[in-house]
Amino acid sequence: MTDKKKVLIVDDEVTLVKLVRFLLERHGFEVCAAYGGQESVEIAQKEIPDLILMDIMMPKVDGNEAIKQLREKEITREIPVIILSALGQEAEVARGLESGAVDYLVKPFNPQDLLARVKKILG
Amino acid sequence: MKKIFQSVKKDNGNSQIKLTLGFKFALIMGITLVVLMLFIGIIVIKEAEKAIINDMKKKSQIYSTFLAGLGSQILAKTPKEQDLRLLQHYVDNLIENEEIIYAYITDKSGTPIVHSKKKKASLEDALVMNFPITSDGKKIGSVKMWYSTDYIVEELSGNMKSVLIIIITLSIFILGTTMFLVSEKIIFRRISTMIKTMNKVKEGVIGVKINDKTRDEIGLLGQNFNNMLTEIEEKHRELTILFEMSRTITSTLQVSLILDMVMDIVVDKLEVASSSVFMLEEDGHLHIKSSRGLSAEFVQERTFKVLRKFVQKSADEGEMVIVNTFSEDFAELRDIMEKERFMSLINIPLIISGKVLGVLNINAKEENAFPERRVRLLSVFAKQMTVALQNAHLYERTQQFTQELEEKINIATGNLARANQDLTKVNERLEDLSNAKSEFVSIVSHELRSPLTSIAGFVNLILDGETGKINATQKDFLNVINENSQRLITLIEDLLNLSKIETGALKEIKKESLELSELIKEVSFSCQSQIEKKKLKIEINLPQEPLPKVEGETNQIIQVLTNLLSNAIKYTPKGGHIFIEVTRIPGYLQTVVRDTGIGISEDNLPHMFEKFYRTDNPKVRELSGTGLGLTITKSIIEKHGGKIWVESELEKGSKFCFTLPVLKEANND
Questions:
Q1: Nearest-CA neighbor of B330 among B363, B296, B289?
Q2: Nearest-angstrom CA–CA distance, B562 and B310
Q3: Torsion sign, CA atoms B286, B288, B291, B295
Q4: Shortest alpha-carbon distance between residue A37 and chain B (Å)
Q5: How do residues A15-52 score in pLDDT, each as one tens digit?
Q6: Which residues in chain B touch residue A57, judged by CB atoms under 8 angstroms apart?
Q7: Does residue B286 contact residue B280 with C-beta atoms inside 8 Å?
Q8: What mean pLDDT comes out for the span A67-82?
Q9: Pair B637, B658: CB distance under 8 Å
Q10: Of A4, A9, B9, B231, which is most buried with the most CB atoms under 10 A?
Q11: Nearest CA in chain B to A24
């Protein structure tokens, strides 16, 4: 069980979490989920996932803020983040990548595309 | 235009020459020459005479010595006949000398014993010479000879020729010197004095005069020069007055002030007794507007009326009137003028463009106070004054007009300001609305995206077989769901873009320098799979020479190219052709995307760039599209300063053309 890579999916959209969880679990990843920014930071500290898939537009603490908090904590600092966002404008993508994300996927995305990127990072 | 009553002519009688310079010279020369000739002549003649007589004496001495010698031998004793004949012979020989006209020999008592046979001329004017004959110291007789004065004169005149040449040479020399001295005195000195005076004048010294009263050419020259100076000074004075006049009257645009100023100048500078100006008013009569030098009594109704009547005539006839002296013809006028001691007057009508504005009346205490030159000056005065008055009138009218205009403008401005305020409010509201709209579109599209992501995601999972096998019908239907959700996604994307363009978020386009051909290659490459899928042939035609760069934002130009190319792909049936070509036109690059597709009907063409416009072509209806692509494309091109248009023919294909401005420093990098 321990050789399974753990992915944390953060999104306030329950169906999307369900979709990603289904996809990744089917392809042999362990998936945990958070439904808000604040929650994502807490779970990340507890679970120490290998990869975080982060939505940006979320109520209260948004994705960018969550990434910032994760970067501040030593324990979560090194975890790679892929942003999954509905914000597809150039400036927003740039901002996301600047905050430390390794990749940026604009919603709606093709599930196979997401899978490929996750696999690439977690090798 | 001018009436002069009893003008008197003056003549300048000072300008006649009494003695011309030439005459003076001739006189001096003549006198000098005569005196000199006389003087030298006398001296020379005297000297010559002396010389000739001496000469003769010497000659006579020889003769007489000989005769005396002979005589002394003969007379010592009683002369014999033979001896007397000898003496006779010698005496006669003596006469052979042309200068001797007569000669004889006397004895001791003085009685002639032998005399020459001939007497060549009268002895009256002859010169007598007496030589004693002695023997042992005792006088025993004498030889007496008469010399011809004619001979002397002849001799003299012979000598004179050479002397005359000397005299003439001498005279010329003396004359020359005299002439120089005289001319120095009567010409050069005076001329140089004159030049000095002229130089002073040139340097601007005023009031200098040439003080040469001699009545010759130079004197006249000086006099004329003085006259000229006086003329110049007078002109200068007039100019100064005119200058002051024009400066004064143009310094204000107030009619009453102008009139007062003119009156002051006329009276002060022209030294006349009085000056007044009458202006023609709307009732057609003259009214005095300003005056100087008129006594209170004079201006009283009854007397003044007479003058006014006379002035009115000048206004009615538009003619200048000069009265140099009040004769019987002006009896009525004279009566009132005499009280003020006015002896002459001038009335000058103030006329501009043939219209009489008024009359300038000037009175003087002397007769003939208005000679030609003063009249001329006054005419100029009047002209200037008229122009100034006209200007002032125009100015007043302009002022009035301006004031009216200002009032109108104020009212209009007030209205405009209110309208502007209203407009600003409306604008603000519109802006609010616009912002609200774009915010709404933004929120809605984002909110739509999340569920669509799920829909598309799950459908894709099923289609990809992640959930197990599906049959053909299921796959077909799922594909429909997928395609439609994709369409919705595109629509949301386009709506967002359009909303941004419309709210001006794209107003500030980034001015990058773009290699258009590179972008075309990039876009056609990214569409390669779609092109291959439909087995289309794509041809990109770029000019041989390198193209200049264009100004624009990379992403937006890529969007334009992508839109046009995907439309071409979409609406061109399998096996069709797509051409992309770029040409250079002045200041721009023109890109054409042409296809051999279904084309656009003529009635649809004008609407191609409208939002959500769909043609009625059933073939198009089958093909999905958001109806915003071309609208966005057009917005982008226009924001970049370019133009876009379409040419098409149904069933033949479409041709979309757009231009983009070339980068200013194109070709440089």
A1: B363
A2: 97
A3: positive
A4: 17
A5: 889 999 999 998 999 999 999 999 999 999 999 999 99
A6: 446
A7: yes
A8: 91
A9: yes
A10: A9
A11: B466
Task: Average pLDDT across each block of 10 residues of chain B; the chain has 669 residues. List them in order.
Answer: 54 56 74 79 79 77 75 73 80 78 81 79 78 78 80 72 76 78 75 81 77 78 82 82 81 82 84 87 83 81 78 83 84 81 88 86 88 85 84 85 90 88 87 78 77 87 87 90 84 78 63 86 88 89 86 86 90 91 90 91 85 72 71 87 90 92 65
Q: Chain A contact for B443, CB < 8 A?
A: no
Please give the C-alpha separations between residue B61 and each of B56, B95, B129, B133, in angstroms, as whole numbers.
8, 15, 10, 12
ipTM for the whole complex = 0.79
Q: Can you tell me the distance from the alpha carbon of B645 to that of B605, in angstroms, rounded to the nearest whole number?
A: 10
Q: Which residues of B touch A56 (CB under 8 A)?
A: none
Nearest neighbour of A109 by CB, restricted to B453, B461, B493: B453
Taking the CA of residue B599 and the nearest CA in chain A, the distance in Å comes to 33
On whether any CB of chain A is under 8 Å from the CB of B488, the answer is no
CB atoms A19 and B454 under 8 Å: yes
Residue B551 is encoded by which pair of tokens? Answer: 């100004």
Count CB pairs under 8 A between chains A and B.
53
Residues 6+ apart with CB under 8 A from B343: B325, B326, B337, B364, B365, B366, B367, B369
B63 closest CA partner among B130, B5, B120, B121: B130
Give chain A's contact residues with B (Cβ, < 8 Å): 13, 15-16, 19, 22-23, 26, 57, 86-88, 90, 107-112
Question: What would the DSSP string read from start to end of B578-623?
Answer: EEEEEEEETTEEEEEEEE-SS---TTTGGGTTSTT---S-HHHHHS
Across the interface, do A108 and B489 touch by the CB < 8 Å criterion? yes
Contacts of B605 (CB under 8 A, 6+ apart): B646, B648
The residue of chain A nearest to residue B461, with distances taken between CA atoms, is A111
Q: What is the residue-wise DSSP string for B166-224? A: HHHHHHHHHHHHHHHHHHIIIIIHHHHHHHHHHHHHHTT--S-------SSHHHHHHHH
User: Are the beta carbons of A15 and B460 separated by less than 8 Å?
Assistant: no
Q: Please indicate whether, in this complex, the C-beta atoms of A22 and B461 are within 8 angstroms of each other.
A: yes
B668: helix, strand or coil: coil
Sheet holding B320-323, edge to edge: B2-5, B320-323, B344-352, B355-364, B274-280, B286-292
